[in-house]
Amino acid sequence: MKRFLLISCAILFPLSVAACNTVQGAGKDVEAAGEAVQDAAD
């Protein structure tokens, strides 16, 4: 569980810092973060 939280924070922090110019771009970032977390959970 600790590893999952660490990986999630490591992925989501840069995404939250980076500005998204469009809603579509934000959706892609969220999707990419979700896929990375899902892959890490496997």
Structure characterization notes:
This protein has 42 residues and is mainly alpha-helical. The protein is 83% helix and 0% strand. The chain is built from two helices and no strands. α1 runs antiparallel to α2 (23-41). The longest helix has 19 residues, at 23-41. The two termini are 13 Å apart. The mean pLDDT is 77.
Main β sheet profile: none
Distance between the termini: 13 Å
* Helicity, as a percent range: over 70%
The run of helices and strands is HH
Continuous helix count: 2
Overall residue-averaged pLDDT value:
77
Task: Tell me the radius of gyration.
Answer: 11 Å
Low-confidence stretches: none
Alpha-beta classification:
mainly alpha
User: How would you sum up the global shape?
Assistant: flat
Features:
42 residues, mainly alpha, 2 helices
Secondary structure blueprint with pairings:
Blueprint: H1 2-17, H2 23-41
Helix pairs in contact: 1-2
Short description:
This protein has 42 residues and is mainly alpha-helical. The protein has helices spanning 2-17, 23-41. The model has no long low-confidence stretch (mean pLDDT 77).
